[in-house]
Amino acid sequence: MRPLRRALSLLLSLCLGLSLLSGCQFSLDRLANGGTIPEPPADYTGTQDGFRYTKSTLSGQERYLYDQILPALQNQETEITDLYPDTAMIQKVVTAIDRDYPELFWFSGTGQIETTLLAGKALEASYQPVYTMDAAQREATQTQIDQWTAGCLATIDRSASEYDQALGVYTYLINHADYQMVDSNSIVNIMVNGAGLCGCYAKTYQYLLLQLGIDVAYITGQAGGESHAWNLAWLDGTPCWIDPTWGDPVFTGGDESQGPAYEYFGLTSDDLTRTHTIDSTVPVPDCTANTNNYFVRSGLYFPSYDATALVSTLQRAMAAGEAQGALLQTVLDLVPNGGIPEGFLHDGVQIRAVADAVGPGAVGHVVVNGHGEGIGLLEHHADLLAQPGDVQVLVKDVLPFEADVPLDMHPGD
Prior knowledge:
The protein is α+β, with helices and mostly antiparallel strands. The protein contains 13 helices and 15 strands. It has helices at residues 2-22, 28-32, 53-56, 60-74, 87-100, 135-153, 162-175, 188-191, 198-211, 269-272, 294-297, 307-321, 325-334, and strands spanning 80-83, 107-118, 121-131, 178-179, 195-196, 216-223, 226-235, 238-242, 265-267, 276-278, 301-302, 349-351, 367-369, 391-397, 408-409. The protein has a five-stranded mixed sheet with strand order 1-3-2-14-15, with helices on one face. Strands 9-8-7-6-10 form a five-stranded antiparallel sheet. Strand 6 (216-223) and strand 7 form a beta hairpin. The longest helix is centred in the first third of the chain and has 21 residues, at 2-22. The chain is elongated, with a radius of gyration of 26 Å. Residues 18-24, 322-349, 351-383, 385-389 and 397-413 have low confidence and may be disordered.
């Protein structure tokens, strides 16, 4: 009996001393757990807040932390305390929230994790997020974002299929944004300032589709040897890949007069991975159906060479779009004497319509191969925050006390 009393007395003394030193308020659960924040429940399912893809891929413990941290970020709290002291888990959760919530434009995606130790044992952690604006600036910026959103959604037929709505948003975004170097992937760059990197395109597209109730995710990886970001969307129940950045002619070295390109709208995984490498940090479905492929959907995809069908399709497109006859001659030059160079076909031929389903306009390329080969990349299009944001990790040993030790974490760099 005496050893038990002595142990309880020692534990209470330690907890009291820690409370005096650090200002912590221990619950009975923490007392029973030796002063450490209890481990999050493994069977936690989480609260629902619309479609948040990255959250759906997390474990129960990670979702628990997600639901702890998210409200604090939404309220712009300067410190989020009483977190389970697992820095890797906290960083993973912060990155997941940053991927899932493009509307958190005031959150930089970066911050500092501080862990409190007692005699070498981790007791608790806190997270200090970095915000890019104060409450007044946030409110003013939200007004501008709402105006931009209203202008976009006013062009969308809400009774149309999800495919048509997503295509309309894709076209509007590309027509109202320029590819340009900026210092973050925030939607503010495009929706307020009119230009941004691939991460800005992907997050803005994600934000707009979520406004329409369309399931969409922000995905990162590599393309052209650089960090890159694009989208995974479920259109009318079928998953597909969409890269709005690669649809912008400015990105590929052209100009706005060319209009959007659609080679990277509604791709299968096989098609996407010819040019993109998907990060393994977030599991993704294998997109196998081509029913959302723009060219398939528009009747502009030919699995084999058919000169009559090619010319007939282009003639109909030109008649609808008042295009110049020189474009038709370009196609005819490619099919001399009823033949076509074997190297031109690559798993089918796609004709980029002069007048597409969204609206007529001049287009840079009339006939392209099945996977948009020849699309150029800007040399420096890296997505600044395609990888998890910078999170400084600090360890604070209460007894004895050691100086904070910063560790700059850049997974994926």
